[in-house]
Amino acid sequence: SLLYDVLPRHIADALKDGKPIEPERREVVTIFFSDIVNFTTISSKLEPWKVSKFLDRLYSNFDSFAQAHGVFKLETIGDAYMAVTNLLEDQVEDHAVRIARFALDAIECASTTLQDEDAPELGTLKIRVGIHSGPVVANVIGKQRPKYTLFGDAVNTASRMESTSIPGKIQCTEVS
Question: Looking at the record's lineage, which domain of life comes first (predicted)?
Answer without folding.
Answer: Eukaryota
